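Need the bound structure for zinc ion, inputs here:
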Amino acid sequence: MTDVLTMLGIESSCDDTAAAVVRRIDGQANILSSIVVGQNELHSAYGGVVPEIAARAHAEQLDIAVERALLDAGVNLTDIDAIAVTAGPGLIGGVVSGVMCAKGIATGIGKPLIGINHLVGHALTPRMTDSIKYPYLMLLVSGGHCQFLAVLSETNFRRIGGTIDDAPGEAFDKTAKLLGLGYPGGPLVEKAALGGDALRFKLPRPLLDRPNCDMSFSGLKTALRRARDLLIEKQGGITEQDRNDLCASFQMAVADTLAEKTRRAMVAFQNISKTKSFAVAGGVAANSLIGEKLRAIAQREGFSFFSPPLKYCTDNAAMIAWAGIEQYDKGARDDMTLAARPRWPIDQTAKPMLGSGKKGAKA
Ligand code: KG4
Ligand code: ZN
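Answer from helper R.:
Posting the output first, comments after.
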């Protein structure tokens, strides 16, 4: 008999309002629809996400996104077996909006509700897109997250290391702001770096002197500001070439740091499992230099490399629906007491990390 499960996913933990329908047929994921309504234009003037603005936009957009996801998928609410919703970690106003919306739909159609950890959604994405087998090593690297995870099952994750302050995407965004580029900063810094000299400014490779896989990016941003201020002091301003060189030097420092820490995470992972699969997810994975460096390290260390299509690497609801499918199988069910959680560590045994950041969600 064919095993079919159809899940509606809802995601609203940061600045994307997303809804998706994913149907698993005999173990294979079929992404029937994935709607992502971004909010960049609402936040760009501030150079980062403004939580209250984000929450209001989610409240306005959620039902529209769900309607569009159903329409695109060609299904009715009656075809849905269960609803998976991001219940944290993230900006609390947005998470609450999503959870309330999901509760309403679950009650209305009398179907189960499953609260999903947003980071679990990212971590299981390569299973949805590439059918990767457990266990595998994962690097989540975005505006709000930066951690290495050993993904052992749909509910068992071991944190091997992560940022102790800013996430790299956040550092890219702050760099863009310091240099008068727009938001989100990552793609703009990458573009400027194309015309720049990565060797001109000697920026630090933070925490490489420590043997573990932890990272830090806030000092790098401070070093960049200092380099910019020195130029302004000397020349009265910065030229376009200065800006490009600063971007290239910054990008190279992030890429070098991520690559070396990834190599160390691969060594550490071998103490947990002898399998050699490595996947990367998160908006920063869109960066060509970083992607190339990670691919090269994987090749050198004998790991197969998985980098899901960007639209499923960045925040989306298909990954939440898929995590819902995997956890539904294991009996996960929530009820109307499901609470939104601003913080929710994916590895409950790991020591909490310091750091706040724009998302307030470095669990
Ligand atoms: O995964 P994502 O869409 O959202 C979360 O943060 O969860 O990632 C967005 C982040 C932003 O900080 C953005 O600047 C960064 O990813 N980003 C990039 C690039 N494209 C997006 N960073 C570096 N290079 C890029 N090409
Ligand atoms: Zn995310």
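Comments: The domain at 135-311 is CATH 3.30.420.40 (Nucleotidyltransferase; domain 5). The pocket of KG4 (ligand 1) is lined by residues 14, 142-144, 169-170, 172-173, 184-187, 190, 282-284, 286-287, 314-315 (CB under 6 Å).
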